[in-house]
Amino acid sequence: MLGAMTPAAIPSHRRTAEGVAVSVACLAVATLVGRLLPGPQRLADVVMPYLLGVVIVSVRYGRAVSLGAALASVLCFDFFFVPPVYAFTVDDPGHLVTFAVMLVVAIVISTLTRRVRQHARDAEQLAKEKHDAHLIAETEQIRSALLSSVSHDLRTPLAVVTGAASTLLDDRIAPAVRAELTETIMREAASLERRLENLLDMTRLEGGAIRPRRQWQPLEEVIGIALRRTEGALAARDVVISLPESLSLVPIDAGLIEQVFVNLLENAAKHTPEGTPIHVRAHDAGGAVEVQIDDRGPGVALADATRIFEKFQRGEGEVAGAGLGLAICRGIVAAHGGKIWVAEREGGGASFRFTIPIVGEPPAMHTGATAP
Amino acid sequence: MTTAGHLVLLVEDEAQMRKFLRASLTAHGYRLVECVTAADALAQATTRNPDLIILDLGLPDRPGLDVIRAVRGWSAMPIIVISARGQEQDKIDALDTGADDYLTKPFGTGELLARLRVALRHVERLGHEPEPTFAAGPLCVDFVRRIVTVSEQEVHLTPIEYKLLSTLARHGGKVLTHRQLLKEVWGPTSVEQTQYLRVYMAQLRHKLEVDPARPRFLLTEPGIGYRLRTDP
Q: What is the mean pLDDT of each run of 10 residues along chain A (372 residues)?
């Protein structure tokens, strides 16, 4: 029972009036049924419709109305059926037991019903409070994790920039060191920019502000942009790209899927030993394209396989990054209707995989181009 | 080519940005006129007649796009726009309105100076006979004989592939938007069909690049268009 239909929500005098009306109707029906019973009337049969009426009223309405209905039933039963008929006097004292039973039934049922109703209301209230408390706790946890990771992640590069810049002001610093410090400033500023970008992406993804604008794109081009953006992080890596020739166009938002590749590649660079190779592959998986980014690092423990895609989850011993990269990947892939997961790679390492469902028909390409 | 003496009109409302741009531009021999509003920019553009405009799209008084439109009414001087990340549509609009190139904040001075050189070179060629060939590292396009070679090996291209490559080569080093390329290669009725462009670009890369996923010549400008690199 919800909203305006809950008994509590209806004004009590209106409910009482309704109860009385229902009681009168039940009495009338019971009396009529009793009178219409064929053959010589047995009082035990006649009392049943009255009892049923009392039960109906007790289940739905309060104790006062139930008792009233029980009393009225007793009186009607007595007046119309118990000899002497059409009089309130009772010949057989045994009938007094019937009256008592009817009253007790009314009391017991109305009490039980009220208790059940109360329990339901309490449980509902309790569940709601629990849910609210859980939500508040979760929001608080996210907020505090966000604050601590933001302050850490943004302050660390800022501290380096400030330190390096103030050192540059010193005349006695050798030119070689100057160049080195300047490069440090540039690198840290770039990392600051990336982290801010991640935070903004996450906020936009969660706020539902990012809706993929899908266009048919060659996956190769998107991977190409991601490789260019991660050049620095992947400098000492052998990154192999294997895409089947048949895989031409996929319906994606290039900017978003590019971010998935960037985050997964940076993730691989961060968590695997320098010099180990990274392999990017894609294949047709029937109605979807499955992409995998395989590394030869330590792999991901089974227990962490889901956790790492949550917000603010950092890898073991990880110092940099707000733990948003994989959560952003999951958000973007989900926005495309796909799935993302991590598997164990045969021969050691992690295999990050995601799918992109093929929605719709790829565009026709008849523009007069014939192979030479 | 010498850059000495080129007069640059710098339209940027942030003092710190102006400071670092001034430092690097003057260090490389450019002369500078600075202003912070679109109105002032238009006044300076007409009175000082600069060789090039660097224009921030986020100006306090009017959209930077108005400046581009107004300047293009009477001059072909190169305009390089500066804008923030995520404002891809602004950049596309600026380029389609007549800006020559763009830079996304934050950018380094190396990138800025390279863009200036490309833009000034293009304007110096205006009015001259078009170059008969384009060469960038091992890639060579012969516009007269319509022959493309990579490391002196001839590469066979379909007519559309050649048209696409030669369009990019004639604007070597400059970004061309999807719309500009589609209009040039497929004609004005196909300007929305970006998938044509992407597919033919992929084919070109497979014919010209050693590693098509890591193009040396045919660069993607994400969300904007393509650029043929002149210094691979």
A: 44 81 88 78 78 83 83 85 79 78 80 84 87 74 63 77 87 88 87 79 74 88 92 87 84 91 91 92 91 91 81 57 78 91 91 92 61 38
The alpha-carbon gap from B45 to the nearest alpha carbon of chain A, in Å, equals: 33
User: Length of chain B in residues, anyone?
Assistant: 232
Query: In chain A, which residues have their Cβ closer than 8 Å to the Cβ of B212?
Result: 220, 224
Cα angle at B149 between B146 and B153, to 5 degrees?
Answer: 130
What three-state secondary structure class fits A369? coil
- Please count the residues of chain A: 372
Instruction: List chain A residues with CB under 8 Å of B200.
Output: 369
Phi, psi of A369 (to 5 degrees): -90, 120
Tell me what ipTM this predicted complex has.
Answer: 0.83
Q: Is B189 in CB contact (< 8 Å) with chain A?
A: no
Is the dihedral angle over the CA atoms A125, A130, A131, A132 positive or is it negative? positive
Residues of B in contact with A253 (CB under 8 A): none
A241 and B198 within 8 Å at the Cβ level: the answer is: no
In angstroms, what separates the C-alpha of A116 from chain B's closest C-alpha? 58
* Contact indicator for A264, A329 with CB cutoff of 8 Å: yes
Token pair belonging to B173: 């080093």
Strand order through the sheet with B101-105: B31-35, B7-11, B52-56, B79-84, B101-105
Cβ distance of A249 and B198 shorter than 8 Å? yes
